[in-house]
């Protein structure tokens, strides 16, 4: 009965399809094979992850649970790039809380979640240098975003990364200018005026 599972079990992904493995990166399904595990024949995706030069075996029936998904289409990739150009709310100063929030977002694994982490940590790094763990999280999120958007839009990774940083810089400068203008327009304390006259 177990032997027939290969022919009966439907697979979400096909051989040679590019997929995203949350927290790991973009991979390619190099084969779909039946392997014996504890006396039971199970169907596995054999996925090659270029970023770590590693091949992983993922049970077909666990792939969705692990968050493995197809690479987004061009529209969704463009939406993720647009998200990083939008104004942002400053994140909590408690780096441990911030780390957990962003790590959870990365585990969810949608391209918008990844873009949100990149945006939040980039702008936080402009306020204060990120702790080592957060810096690693930022680098990981950036790599995931660059890889997926690059595959989706069929653009070189170097061009995608450059584009992302240009967009982030524009937003940072825009918000910094807005903050300066707001500070300059605040009413001056009358006591300060008196001090200057004497």
Protein described:
The chain contains seven helices and five strands; from the N terminus they run H-E-E-E-E-E-H-H-H-H-H-H. The protein has 198 residues and is of the alpha+beta class. The chain has two domains: 2-70, Beta Barrel (Thrombin, subunit H), CATH 2.40.10.170; 74-184, Up-down Bundle (Methane Monooxygenase Hydroxylase, Chain G, domain 1). Strands 4-3-2-1-5 form a five-stranded antiparallel β-sheet. Helix 2 packs antiparallel against helix 5. The chain is elongated and about 75 Å long. The termini are far apart.
General form: elongated
Q: State the domain count.
A: 2
Helix content range of the residues, please? 40-55%
CATH architecture of the largest domain: Up-down Bundle
Unreliable parts: 1-7, 191-198
CATH class of the largest domain: Mainly Alpha
- The number of E-state strands comes to 5
**Separation, N- and C-terminal Cα atoms:** 96 Å
Rg, please? 23 Å
The averaged pLDDT comes out at 86
Biggest sheet layout: 5 strands, antiparallel
Widest beta sheet: strand line-up: 4-3-2-1-5
Structural class: alpha+beta
Relevant CATH superfamily of the largest domain = CarD-like, C-terminal domain
User: And the CATH topology of the largest domain?
Assistant: Methane Monooxygenase Hydroxylase, Chain G, domain 1
Query: What percent strand?
Result: 15-25%
Q: What are the secondary-structure elements, in order, as H or E?
A: HEEEEEHHHHHH
Q: Count of helices? A: 7
